[in-house]
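[job 0412] stage=complex_fold ligand=iron/sulfur cluster status=START
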Amino acid sequence: MTDDVLSELALLRDLGYTHLDLRVSVPLPAVVETAEAVDEDPWIALSAAAHECTRCRLAGTRTNVVFGVGNRNADLMFVGEAPGRDEDLKGEPFVGRAGQLLTDIIKAMKLTRDDVYIANVIKCRPPENRNPEPDELDACRPYIRQQVDLIRPKVIVALGRFGLQSLTGKSYGITAVRGQWLEYNGIKLMPTYHPAYLLRNPAGKKDVWLDMKKVMAELGIAV
Ligand code: SF4
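[job 0412] stage=complex_fold status=DONE, emitting structure tokens
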């Protein structure tokens, strides 16, 4: 087992997966592949761990943990940055004005929110909607990675720079790579602008639509 895998398993154990045996050589997602864990729904375990999480300082200021919503068998997953005020109050990602714009984008793709899975890389609202700190992104990263591992979508759309950087571990600038296919763990990854950015810069909508047309083509959806 590689150091990376051991490290990831240790993080999972910290998150509450007490059945994990680090001596057992199993690939990720270990939580659904170890015999000891098959009687435990990995989604329930992961969600429970997030809702009790105190791995970073954002636990002290959140109203609700914003875990993620949608179809756990989705072909398409949207990964955003962090909850805002509306999301913190409701406990659901993308429910404010930016959320409505994301819903409109999904509809334009001939899908519904129930067809896709939506989550952020940070599960608790940063105070005053400030940018997440690097240590907060590090602390929260195991949750989004496990969500991706459990869903195994055909395509991930990374909305904004923090979603992209947290998933890939690389310091991409969103403007530089927007619209270009990248890869995360063998899954096609399309970076594009965050809907909140589009509210401030509506001219970017045409770029996002170009990016979503590439995603639709990859998923076999007629444009
Ligand atoms: S932001 Fe993530 S790591 Fe920090 S307390 Fe919330 S769930 Fe835990």
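Confidence is low (pLDDT under 50) at residues 1-38.
[job 0412] exit 0
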